[in-house]
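Cross-posted from the bioinformatics board.
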Amino acid sequence: MGDNFRWETFFDALPIVLQGLGVTVGLTFACFGFALLFGFVWIFFRRIPNKLIVSIVTWVMEFIRSTPPLVQLFFVYYALPVVPVIGVTLEPFTCAILAIGIHYSTYIGEIYRSGIESVDKGQWEASIALNFSTMDKWRRIILPQAIPPTIPMLGNYFIIMFKEVPLASIIGVTGILAMANSYGALNFAYLEPLTIVGIIFLLLSYPSSILIKKLEVKMNTRFDKNVLLEKAKKKSIPDMNLKESDRIV
Amino acid sequence: MSNVLTENKKNSVSLSTEPIVKYLDVKKSFGDTHVLKGINLEIRPGEKIAVIGPSGSGKTTIIRMLMTLEEPTSGDIIVNGKNLWKMEKNGQLVKANEKHIREVRGDIGMVFQHFNLFPHMTILENCMAAPIHVKKENKDEVRERSIKMLERVGLGTKLDFYPSQLSGGQKQRVAMARALVMRPKIMLFDEVTSALDPELVGEVLEVIRDIAENDDMAMVLVTHEMEFALDIADKVLFLDQGVIAEQGTANEVLVDSKNERVQSFLKRFRKA
Ligand SMILES: Nc1ncnc2c1ncn2[C@@H]1O[C@H](COP(=O)(O)OP(=O)(O)OP(=O)(O)O)[C@@H](O)[C@H]1O
Ligand SMILES: [Mg+2]
């Protein structure tokens, strides 16, 4: 180390660091998917009409949220195997999904909750008046209204998790950071491979955040009269003969 | 002509038929406020009932309990001979579970003050959702019936519109069509015109009148439209301080009543 940045090293390290890209991206999707699903688990338990269960679950969520993901990662990887009875040894990749996924699922559960609470109470009442089953009420009425407005927020968490996933290199998951690290150790050159890691994160995160901003606008205006009007024009449904004068300005 | 029809309709409600709904000493409190202090009420098949009374007298609460949106504090409501809020288990009456409640309330429909249409569905989908998913009816048949119903309420040309594209009056007419395609035996209306601009009230009342004259379901209307109530109701209930203070034909309650509270209510009402 200590010498200046050299393009030669940069291009030498590039293919090696890129070998880890699949793992990093794959782990991000896996953690995110797990967090999306597990978020519903929190919601489910918190809606059980039993004060004790609700307060236990709330407390557990708070506990998970206020502990660093790194500690949780170590716990799952090193401590879980020695816990009596339930102790299991898991692959590093699986450990990372569990630890990072569960950590962020507590945030995602909160996002779901805000989405569900934003659904007008008249919608619940209409579902009762039309005699929907509990299952259909959630599936067809509540969630289709509760989730779309939260998509931008969920997207933000996707990016946050993408940036959190390199933590897993510490327990031996060979993503781009681990690859850069081992390249550095072998060749005594850390600057170039770590620069590559930085560039990769920038190249993937930045466009994603722009995409999310666009999504946000789209979700907020989903049922906006003018947006529907434009859509109708494109599809040119004969029924949609709203006049220009019907526009809301 | 509409008067003739109304008269016929009124005669067709035979007092000898078994009531389809019976309130048995139903009481309701919210915390310390006793909103309903013992309601006994019978609704016969096809009967049109208007519920009037001062604000806060419990009109909305009465019909919300029948729709199972609010649970009575004591007493129960019998629908089609079955308890609504209680069910039999091992020979005892216990609190009804979701399955029992869904079974019993299947014949009841409701139209709300604020429409409560599903914003993520077109108005045709709004009408089709419950018959298909709740009653498991044939999709094509439901579609045809829904289109007919939307045509009936004057929205046949807007089937693919979303609720956000409609005026308040149009939304309320969709809400009625949505309730009607479920073919309820009892329809509840909670001040369905009071959230509307005055110029849109008429079109909604016309639809209700049409239903009252041509369909044979029972209707309970909570309303401030006195003239309208007088016109279509077989029976008018005057609710005051949590009890049914007066009931009878529209003429008996709205014109001839000697009840002081009714008179002062109507007087205040006419001034407003
Ligand atoms: N969910 C609730 N929690 C607490 N109090 C309630 C609730 N719903 C109704 N109330 C109270 O019960 C009383 C009766 O309410 P209700 O809505 O049935 O009256 P209403 O006759 O329909 O009045 P309005 O003409 O204003 O609609 C009111 O005093 C109201 O404040
Ligand atoms: Mg009311």
